[in-house]
Amino acid sequence: MSKSKHKSNNSFYELIKTLFYAGTIAVLFRSILFEPFNIPSGSMIPSLLVGDYLFVSKYSYGYSKYSFPFGILPIKDRFNYNVPKRGDIIVFRKPGDEQIDYIKRLIGLPGDTVQLVDGRLYVNNKLVVRKKTNKGQITKSDGNKINLIEYKENISNRKSYKIIETSDNDFFDNTIKFMVPKDKFFFMGDNRDNSKDSRASEVGFVPKINLIGKAQIIFFSHNGSARFYEFWKWHNLIRFSRIGKKIE
């Protein structure tokens, strides 16, 4: 074998080895530390906007088989488990269709009762305090206008956040009293009248094993007003004020 061919083979093997190591490190980083997610819908407005990209900490609540690519590790429950706190924004796998990731706010812990009465949230039969902070209007694609009211809601002494409502008499504004089973959780979106969450039968209570991680920080955000190759529009595309924002 000539020297040039031998050198070429060595270079190829080195490239393969480098790619293998880089891929392994990337998989371990995403599985154990942080995984990036993007927001595809408006169910978490005003906390999260369509076009936000964020890091989710995988270690916050321990690990299950869904913490790893393709669920390759045969973990039956969770290990290194830490109990989530009410008010945390969490990424989880949709119950019954675990290929789909959802992101919502944790409202009910195992053993809690959760109910909405005329748009007001009750947890363990206690009214969750909210205060009106803003009022506005949006125009839908069909030209119809929708009034929105923004509130600051306090689910505990340590946790407050903003929600929006179109009214207090929409479909999910009056519910039964949900009793959260053992090892399951109750989630809701901050866009209360435009969120498919634990109030809907197709989502329901979320098993502990389905939790992926806690939303921590926004690392990029865009408003979708330009295509990636329209670099001359990027200054209007990127929401610079949201980059680096801690998620509450």
Task: Please characterize this protein's 3D structure.
- The protein is an alpha+beta fold.
- The chain has a single domain (3-242), classed as Umud Fragment, subunit A.
- It contains 2 helices and 14 strands, in the order αββββββββββββββα.
- It has helices spanning 3-33, 234-237, and strands spanning 34-38, 52-57, 89-93, 101-108, 113-117, 120-123, 126-127, 129-139, 145-156, 159-165, 178-179, 184-188, 206-207, 211-221.
- It has a 7-stranded antiparallel β-sheet with strand order 1-2-14-3-4-12-13. A 4-stranded antiparallel β-sheet has the order 7-6-5-11, with no helix packed on it.
- A hairpin with a 2-residue loop joins β6 (120-123) and β7 (126-127).
- The mean pLDDT is 87.
Which terms summarize this structure?
seven-stranded antiparallel β-sheet, globular, Umud Fragment, subunit A
Distance between the termini: 62 Å
Total helices: the number is 2
What is the element string, with H for helices and E for strands? HEEEEEEEEEEEEEEH
Instruction: Name the CATH homologous superfamily.
Output: Umud Fragment, subunit A
In the residues, how many domains can be counted? 1
